[in-house]
Amino acid sequence: MSARGMLSLVGNAVGGLIGWSESVPPAEPEVLRALFTDLGVRVGPDEAELTEAVRYFQTRAGLPVDGEAGPRTVHLLARYAAEAREINLIQAA
């Protein structure tokens, strides 16, 4: 199992323990870019751009800023992206 896969597994386990009802998506670059796209943020293919986007998100969300997409960061990013998708659906109706 890859390190990212292990982090995702641990994140889901921790999330279940602290009451996150939805599973945390994997911290894969493609998944993170898709979540940022849902928030209206375009992140290029460069790893440095993705790290900077994660740092900016962590700052805005009040998380410790380390540029790493750990379970807490990914959970909040996924939650905010889902809310953004819902708002876009409402506005489109």
Automatic annotation (TrEMBL):
InterPro entries: Peptidoglycan-bd-like, PGBD-like_sf, PGBDSf. It holds the Pfam family PG_binding_1. SUPFAM superfamilies: PGBD-like. Residues 44-75 form the Peptidoglycan binding-like domain. It comes from the Bacteria. This is Putative peptidoglycan binding protein. It comes from Actinoplanes xinjiangensis. The lineage of its organism: Bacteria, Bacillati, Actinomycetota, Actinomycetes, Micromonosporales.
